[in-house]
Specification:
Layout: E1 2-5, E2 8-14, E3 27-33, E4 36-42, E5 48-56, H1 65-74, E6 84-89, E7 94-98, H2 104-114, E8 122-128, E9 133-139, H3 141-150, E10 156-158, H4 161-164, E11 173-178, E12 182-189, E13 192-200, H5 204-217, E14 226-231, H6 237-243, E15 251-252, H7 263-275
Parallel strand pairs: 3-6, 6-10, 11-14, 14-15
Antiparallel strand pairs: 1-2, 2-5, 3-4, 4-5, 7-9, 8-9, 11-12, 12-13
Helix pairs in contact: 1-3, 5-6
Length: about 280
Amino acid sequence: MTATTNNTYEQVYNIQEDESLSSRVAFSICLLMQRGILTAGYSSAKELLTIHYSGYNKNRPVWDIGFFEQVIGSEPLLAAREKVKGVFLSSHRNIIVPDELYAENDAKKWLKQLYFIESGDRINIFPLENDNAQLLYAIPVGVAELVRINFKKTPVLPLPVHHFDMEQVTSLYLQCCISNEQVVATLHNYSQLLWHKVFDYSCAEDIAYEIKLLCKENYIDAAKLNFVCNATCASEYDIVNELTRYFPSIKAGDGSDIKSQWDPAISLANQLLECVS
C-alpha cells in the first residue's frame, strides 16, 4: 500500500491483510535515514509481520527534525518504546579505521578532515569485531537528541552493521543497501574488507558506474562479484531490477532470489533484526 500527502509518502507491507496483525507484534526496529524512516514489526517468534516506510521529497531539508518527530510520535510500531529492539542510523559521513591504527581522538580528527562536521554533531563509534576495525560516523545533533530522548534504553547502531555482523566466507562479496537517495556499499573478499562507501545516486546507472569504477581501479572482474542488495521500501525495487542489466545474478541481501517489489526491503528488515537479537 502506498499513500502520498503534503510532499510525504508512505508505504506499508503486511505479511497478510488481517485486522489482528498489529496485536501479534511483539517487538520492532527502526531505521532513520536521509528524508526517510523505516519501522518493522515482528512476532515473538521473530517472524516479520509488517514494514512501515515514510519519506518526503527533496524540497524539504535533508534531516527535517519535525518530520522525524511526527513519525516517531505517531507510529504504532514505536508506541511501546520497550519493544523497540534497535535503532539504526544511516550516515554518509563515516570512516573505518583498523584497530592497529586506531586512537579515538586521531580517528575523529581524520573524520573531520574528510567531511564537514558541525560543532554540535555527534560522532558515534561502533566496533567491527570481524574486521578488526572501528566504524566512526557523524549524526546531526538534532537527530542524535531525538534518538536519545525517545529511545533511552535502546541500542543504537549504524545501518551498515548488517554488512559486518558475520565473518564473510565468500569471494568478492558485494553488499548494497539502497535507500531513497543513497547507497551503502561494502565489498569483502572472504574475510578481507576491501571497500566501504556511502554515496548518492539518481538512477541505477549511477550505482552501476560506481561499482564498475571500483572494480576497474582494483583490477577486479565485475562479472565475478557475488552481488546482494537490500532496499528500504518497495519504491527502490525498480532500481534494483534495473541493476540486473549490469549484474544479472544480483540477489536480495539474505541471498534469496528477488521475485517481488518488497523482497529487498523484507531482506533488510530481517537482517537488521539479526543484528540486535
